[in-house]
Amino acid sequence: MDASKSKPKVGLEGLPRFLEGFTAYHLRVRFVAEREVAFGGKWYFLPRFALGNALMNSPRFAHLYTELFKPEPQTGADGRQHTSASRLVVRADRPTRRGLARREPLDLYITIVVREARLVEDFVAFLPEWQGYNFMQEHGLSYHSYQLLSPETGRYETGLGVGEARLDIGFFERQAPEWVEGLSVRFLTPTTLRLDQLLSAEIPLSRLLNRISRRLYELYTQCLASEGESVAPFVFAERNDLMLSEVSLPQSPTIKAHRQYDMSGILGQLHYRTPYDPVAALMLSVAHWVHIGTHTVSGNGQILAWGTDASAQPSPSPSSVLDEDGCLVVQGEGLRLGLQRLDLVIRQGSQLISRHPATSIRELRLVGEAPSLSSGVLSFCNKRGIPILHSDSL
User: Fold this and answer.
1) Which of 34, 196, 278, 313 could make an S-S bridge to 10, C-beta 3.0–4.6 Å?
2) Residue 6: what pLDDT?
3) 95 closest CA partner among 147, 42, 51
4) Secondary-structure breakdown of the chain: helix, strand, coil percentages, each rounded to the nearest 5
5) By three-state DSSP, how is residue 298 classified?
6) Do strands 303-307 and 182-191 pair parallel, antiparallel, or not at all (unpaired)?
7) Are strands 363-367 and 327-331 parallel, antiparallel or unpaired?
8) Rounded mean pLDDT, 228-243
9) CA–CA distance from 331 to each of 104, 328, 348, 367, 376 (Å)?
């Protein structure tokens, strides 16, 4: 059955306000090591720490510290002060690396939850100042460039203006998964979701969706809503559609101690048998960019959802293209991606389709039916911080 023909369409009037009006920007920022450096321990949260100090001390852009990085607490309806959500998600590329070779790039993937383009314009103008603080300065990391994500192409583009880069409901709808009864969710970075205060490998879809719904509601009401705007939360009815769990649990709990962050969390994927829900599909699409769970501001909790129903439509011939920016686009039915020595190998049945040097890949884009990814590919992408994106068409 063709999911694209079977799924009901939802108009904007059928969406929760916080989903209909959700907007964000996403960019890739590149720094380059001026010398060979070794990291003395866990470092994935340190670029964000340096960002906070750089913003706070910026002669021109200090306002971004309270407008984006650490907004002031807000007074709730109960009259109490409540911590405001950060508008920035900062995910480091390949966060398990122990060092960098001279001239090796370090990419940071940043989502900014904001409506005003001026704040993003100020942020990209500020970027060169980041190199002068803490982790960046100590390791000789020089600012190189940035690329905004295009909502039209779904790719990072040099020279794209901020005015052309706003991600809105149209973008999220194009990126949303389609399914009839089969839905899978993959945790691309360690994700901390607790059921009754405990990490679990078996997460009902309604629990997952309600965590996403709560995060999007809080981000919208704190970062995007107009003054006096009335916004209602959205709750999915409890049900357990889980068919199969292929999730690994961390060996140690997620803790914060001595200013060091143990960002352990679940990895792997969950498979559900559930009817299509357009609101759920859009929420899953947005969640890929803003992450879920705890420590999202430092890159935890990135997910990817896709439909697993077989399509009756003829599929395109299998193909894969690795562009000069390191984006590998893979398209075709029944494909399997695996690692063989230093190559990413793509097969269809017993037929070899193509192979690409794994170390040249900086982004993996899956078009159409989601291929099977070996544990080696998943581990490689996770260790190197390679984003795995999925879309229904090129």
Assistant:
1) 278
2) 42
3) 42
4) 30, 30, 40
5) helix
6) antiparallel
7) parallel
8) 92
9) 30, 10, 11, 5, 20
